[in-house]
Design brief:
four-stranded antiparallel beta sheet; alpha/beta; 27% strand; 256 residues
Length: 256
């Protein structure tokens, strides 16, 4: 294990503090840190997205600079390879970015030349942060629960005629349950490329989230066929240990 310094990390607008090494014993979804803004110190969990997005630059400094997250680049790379397989160019892509957050994945999609992208997140602060930090990046950004019964958000997404799906660092911990992932798949055309990532334990035999069973069932029935799977280091834990995820490239081949 590579220990990490607990010294304060000063940035424009805030001071970030990771806990002392002796305190870093929680599971990944219980990791926390402290942030000082305008003289007030708050303790936040890494998954307290609404609070994190509300502080400009905090998410990038914590997750990408300090903990070296690689997932947007890896998942975008898988999508690029899928495009090569299918001889697609960026101008033909109309991507649903599920769990879009403040747009870091959207930037990678733009680098691929995606002609049209739509962000989806359940947190209003995510959409606000995306427009604040990356104005105009998405052609639309829908704040919704895709399982909401009125169907307005689903109709709005359908109007974009989406034909690809990305989902990065949002599956497996309850942020986006399997039912929501399925609903997102229903919003894209058939056939469509799908690129996502998930912590390796959630594709194992003892998966507590139900996601492993979903992937196996959809693959077996030919609805969502896995084309490629890559194990890689998603980021470091707060204690400096590597957290391994799978990046998955798949293709939606049938409605379900």
């Amino acid at each position: 294990m590579a220990s990490r310094s607990a010294d304060p990390i000063e940035a424009e607008g805030f001071v970030l503090r990771l806990p002392e090494e002796a305190s870093r014993s929680a599971d990944q979804d219980e990791e926390w840190f402290e942030v000082e803004v305008d003289g007030e110190t708050r303790r936040l969990r890494f998954h307290d997205y609404a609070d994190i997005y509300s502080i400009p630059g905090l998410y990038e400094r914590l997750i990408y600079d300090e903990l070296r997250c690689e997932s947007p680049r890896v998942v975008a790379g898988l999508l690029a390879r899928g495009m090569e397989r299918r001889r697609l160019d960026g101008g033909s892509l109309r991507v649903l970015d599920l769990g879009a957050g403040n747009g870091i994945v959207g930037e990678e999609l733009a680098r691929l030349g995606a002609d049209h992208s739509v962000g989806v997140d359940i947190i209003p602060e995510a959409a606000q942060a995306a427009e604040r930090d990356r104005p105009g990046l998405y052609d639309d950004y829908v704040v919704c629960d895709l399982l909401d019964g009125d169907g307005a958000a689903r109709e709005r997404l359908d109007s974009h005629r989406l034909n690809a799906l990305t989902c990065v660092a949002a599956l497996g911990f309850g942020d986006i349950p399997p039912e929501v992932f399925c609903e997102a798949l229903r919003r894209i055309a058939t056939p469509s490329l799908v690129a996502y990532n998930i912590k390796e334990k959630f594709l194992g035999e003892e998966d507590p989230s139900g996601f492993s069973d979903l992937v196996e069932r959809l693959h077996a029935e030919g609805s969502l066929v896995t084309l490629e799977r890559e194990r890689y280091q998603h980021r470091l834990s707060w204690a400096g240990e590597p957290l391994h995820y799978y990046g998955v490239l798949a293709e939606k081949r049938a409605d379900f």
